[in-house]
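User: For my dataset I need records formatted as: sequence, then structure tokens, nothing else. Please produce one.
Assistant:
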Amino acid sequence: MEKKKVNTDFGTSSLTFLGKYIADIQKAVGDKLNVGLEKATNYLADELEKKTPVNTGITKQSWVKQLKYRNVKYINNTATNKKGYPIINVLEFAKKRGKPFVRKTLQENEEKIRSIIVAELEKEGTDNG
């Protein structure tokens, strides 16, 4: 049986086309991921605000979302006590006056957050509207 020689010498135009095609796919997936992360961030920030203890002063209204970076999102709480310590840290980690809820809220919503992101990635086409 004679082995057939396979032509593996791709021309420059073939490689350029393939490179552009892969780059287009990466951009489309990145765009969808970014939308999914934004939606998940908005969802989690709302959940954190709902779960913030009421008697914590301005802490409940001090959740801030950073959405400006591509595929990287942040949620922060800007409320501090009179000594400048983040109130969220006091609530989450203080032994006497602590009312931990951040980690618990994240864990309770982990599957929902994942499903929000995956749903965006599974959408057909590149329309993320």
